[in-house]
Amino acid sequence: MIRRAIFPGTFDPFTIGHYSVVCRGLGLFDEIIVAIGTNQTKNTMFPLSERIKIIQQTFSAEPRVSVEKYDCMTIDFAKQLNANYILRGIRSVSDFEYEHSIADANRKLTGIETVILLTEYEYAYISSSVVRDLLHYGKDISAFLPPNVIYPLPKII
After folding, report:
1. Is 18 among the residues known to form the active site?
2. Catalytic residue among 4, 18, 51, 88
3. Helices marked H in 8-127 — which ranges?
4. Which is nearest to 74 in space by CA: 110, 25, 21, 118?
5. Among 1, 19, 36, 101, which is least packed, fewest CB within 10 Å?
């Protein structure tokens, strides 16, 4: 049986922390689908097409990683893709408490297991929100992105 995981998120933008979780997850899973969820309540900085393109380019040399978009519950999308696992990264105790309750509900509803990887220490402070704030103020974000990734500057209104 193929060990297929989805790694869900908005990825606005996809950071070096996200990249690290996927790379480390490849040691556990045969395939990882980076699943970009659309959330009508979130105001994203980067268009969905740009986020998909960046992640595809980031993993262009890794055939076991693919990128998909979805607009439904994460567990329903996981079932559609025959994914046995949901991969998550956590940075803090509050992240753990949140992910733990969702993981329990997902397992109860579908039997899909959630695998949580602790963020590496050097990336624990990095979040998409922090990177968006830095971009908003014109700061260099290259240290917060996966290798060889350059985001276009968003149009700030």
Report:
1. yes
2. 18
3. 16-25, 48-58, 74-80, 93-110
4. 110
5. 1
